[in-house]
Amino acid sequence: MRPEPDLARAFDPRAVEPRIYARWEADGLFHAEVDPARRPYCIVMPPPNVTGDLHLGHALDTVIQDVLVRWRRMEGDAVLWQPGTDHAGIATQAVVERRLLAEGRSRHDLGRERFLERVWAWKDEYESHILDQLRRMGASADWSRTRFTMDEGLSRAVVEVFVRYHEEGLLYRDDAVVHWCPDCRTALSDLEVEHWEEDGALWTIRYPLEGGGEIRVATTRPETMLGDTAVAVHPDDPRYRSLAGRTAILPLVGRRLPVVADPAVEREFGTGAVKVTPGHDPLDFEIGRRHGLEAIQVVGWDGRMTDAAGEPYKGLRREEARRRVLADLAAQGLLVSEAAHRHAVGHCSRCDAVIEPLVSRQWFLRMRPLAEPAIRAVREGRLRIVPRRFTKIYLHWLENIRDWCVSRQIWWGHRIPAYECEVCGETTVARSRPERCPRCGAEGTRLRQDEDVLDTWFSSALWPFSTLGWPDDTAELRFFYPTSTLVTGYDILFFWVARMAMSGLHFMGEVPFRTVLLHGLVRDAEGRKMSKSRGNTLDPVELVDEYGADALRWALVHGTAMGGDVNVGRERLEAGRNFANKIWNAGRFALSQLGASPPGRREEAWLRAGLPDDRVPPGFAPADLVDRFCLDRLAAHAAEVRRHLRRFELGEALAVAYAFVWDEFCDWYLEASKHRLYGHEGEEARATARLVLWGAFGTVLRLLHPFLPFVTEELWSRLPGARGSVMQAAYPRPPRAWRDPEAESDMRLAIELVRTVRALRGEVGVEPGRPVRVVLVPGELRPGVARGAHLLRLARVESWELAARAPAEPAVAQVVRGVGVYLPLQGQVDVEREAARLEAERRAVEERRRRLAERLARPGYQEKAPAEVVARDRAALAELERVLAGLAERAARLGRGPQE
Fold it and tell me: 3-class SS at 895?
């Protein structure tokens, strides 16, 4: 009657997961096909950088996507989860350069070609490792379609986009002040600069005027004054109206500086007069253009002072030059004051170095014409951002967008398809090297390709359509574009999401995805940001090794609000592992009762349960309360899970499924079914119970599969009558006929009665295995109590009586929803012994209470002892008094009726 299933006593992820995943891949279950008969569902995977191993943020991103694609496969959609990796220009070049540095070499020692060979080797090694890590987490992407942002097809798409932008007049080359990282040695876009609020200083400096007098300027960067070419004042500032047009003398250098009037000057800043350094400030650069000023570069590309800074400053680092300039100004009596000043300082998002604004010739993309359609797409609802609160942030950024500097002074990346003629200097943008210069006719060998590469995000912005074959008109592009859902972190809303929206609308005439699903960051159990310096980082693959992929997936998704940060610690991972084991043990029990074949001939409808037009097997209407309750709860919770999934509330969906499976299905339905499954009520009852168990457990596995794919697949493969993989089965849509409000109400009352009897047994010390009798006074709930009273056997009740009034004999009792529950003492409880036990316990607690009260009453104790110790003692005293009151109540109830 209770055969042992051929399953280990505990779920062993290390033994199960590799075998299951290998079978999925071998059977081609992740492969996507263009199928016009089905609804397309496509997610493009945010391509991980090939810089190293994945972190928990990648794991969260991956699991959310996998839940969605597994669910949509089970809904019958034609699903493509498009995988790939990103070359991550600056970041990848930096890690390879660090490896070279450890060898005592630099990229310049190797030269461009040999250095790029080293980077490609790194890419091949780490890309393979990254894809394996994704597999370990259960990612069900179509690996046969894996792309790389610098593979042949995507490189062709990048060149095509660059050329088209140039032909449309959206790409231009110009001298401008750019964000320059002296450590990475490249220009950065606005988004690649992080502004940190820092405590600095505002220095006021005296600039002598020709002909006598002076003008005082305020600055936060005195070292750049060596490159000043003017002093500027606001034309409407009465303090300086008479000085405009005069000439100042640059301290330390002696350069003559015109005093110019310009409306860009902030009159409220400092003294209202500012130094103009066109070579090191974007605002000063524009002032310089308006007034024909020279741009002198006194800070070099390496962050050191240039020859133009003059002696004795050239060669010094910026910080050293600042100290030297201030000391020299003070020595000459030109430093007026120094005041504390908190301001934002730009840092490189890659290496944290302080950014240096420098004038450089770069390629820029005009963003305003691209931004306007992307703004309209969101306002018109063609592109939806979830959670909605990020919509305002997205729109604000696009409405205030500036042109994008797309060129980078590194070697690893898409080299810019622009060719400069060595003969006449003409620059030609082309899809391939021109055979001749279009201007002077020089041969193609005299055309030198631009040394710079494109910003990494330039190619990433094309990801949704380039991975589907664009610029070719492929079947995949026609079927899967626009893609369905983009899942990514809110931290790259501008870096990536907005740029994909602009690119897709410009080149495809349609949004690249219908919905953007933004998740938060992964933090430690205390809510702190994970970092190596804190020592609180967790490696996702190590966690899979220790807890299993299903446990990690549960920890990342359960109860998580979309767009909110996720706190992950060991306790949460253990809870996920415990849930996987709960399902496993439920499976062991179910399979032990079902045997090797489905119960009876009515299994076909159950196997197909999940299709909208399904019905329960003909003529099948279980009469037992437990079966009716199970089907009712399964129908209700399956509908709720589906509703949450449609709203992208994955955390809530899993929380609903978890609560149902753990509590209602395992702890109550399975336990209450054992009496019939073991044959105690006859073979017909057993057959019905087996059929319900078989269908319900199969539905539970399908319901949970998108979240915990490994344990559900392993159990499904052993479920009698189940065909194929569980991911090929339909997602549950239990029929409305399963809903049964009466069964739910009766069962919930029965559960409360069972819990109450268990509590009463414990209160009076009845041995756990000893059968008892109870008296129930149901009042108006008599029909419901009568239908569920047989379940009191779960509380080791061997007999019960439905009475109109309380029994006259001594009993302990409790009222539940108006139903009196009486546990008679006669013959079941040794009243004298229980009273003695309670009295002994009362005396022990009273003694502890007395000592603690005396300590608190001791003169001077509460004034001298630490506040936290006094507070702890007071709390302990209150708890002891609560325990004493409970013991007194229990002693009094040994012979009294029910207490509300």
Answer: helix
Spatial distance between the Cα atoms of 433 and 428, rounded to a whole number of angstroms: 9
Question: Is the CB of residue 766 less than 8 Å from the CB of residue 828?
Answer: yes
Q: What is the pLDDT of residue 617?
A: 52
Dmax over Cα atoms in the chain, in whole Å? Answer: 117
Q: For residues 501 and 715, give the distance between their C-alpha atoms in angstroms, rounded to a whole number.
A: 42
Contacts of residue 891, Cβ cutoff 8 Å, sequence gap at least 6: 835, 838, 839, 842
DSSP one-letter code for 664: I
- CA atoms of 551 and 572, how far apart (whole Å): 9
Contacts of 856 (CB under 8 A, 6+ apart): 862, 870, 873, 874, 877
Q: What's the chain's Rg over C-alpha atoms?
A: 37
Element (H, E) at 496: none
**Core vs surface per residue 477-488: b (16+ CB within 10 A) or e:** bebbbbbbbbbb
Render 292-324 in DSSP notation, one character per residue.
T------B-TTSBB-GGG-TTTTT-BHHHHHHH
453, 418 contact by CB (below 8 A): no
C-beta of residue 62 within 8 angstroms of C-beta of residue 557:
no
**What does the pLDDT read at residue 900?**
38
Q: Identify whether 471 is preceded by a cis peptide bond (ω within 30 of 0).
A: yes
Q: Cα(548)–Cα(567) distance, rounded to whole angstroms?
A: 18
Query: 522 forms bridges with which residues in the sheet?
Result: 566
**Which amino acid is it at 733?**
R
Bridge-partner residues for 774, per DSSP?
Answer: 800
Q: Rounded distance, CA 163 to CA 429, Å? A: 6
DSSP secondary structure of 392-446: HHHHHHHHT---EE-EESSSSS-B--EEEETTT--EEE-SS--SB-TTT--BGGG
Percent above pLDDT 90 for the chain: 67
DSSP-derived 3-state class of residue 640? helix
For range 117-134, the mean pLDDT:
95
Output DSSP code: residue 622.
-
End-to-end alpha carbon distance in the chain:
43
The kind and range of the H/E element at 816 are strand 811-816
Decide: residue 397, CB within 10 A, 0-12 exposed, 13-18 middle, 19+ buried. Answer: middle
Q: What is the pTM of this model?
A: 0.84
The CA distance from 528 to 859, in Å, is: 44
Determine the 3-state secondary structure of 610 from DSSP. Answer: coil
Average the pLDDT over 662-688 and give the result.
Answer: 93
pLDDT given at position 530: 73
Neighbours of 210 (CB within 10 A): 11
452 φ, ψ (degrees, to nearest 5): -75, 160
Task: Give me the pLDDT at residue 614, please.
Answer: 44
Residues in the chain: 900
Tell me, what DSSP letter sits at residue 225? G
> Cα 215 from chain centroid?
54
Q: By C-alpha distance, which of 733, 723, 753 is closest to 819?
A: 753
* Residues 180 and 304 sit within 8 Å (Cβ to Cβ): no
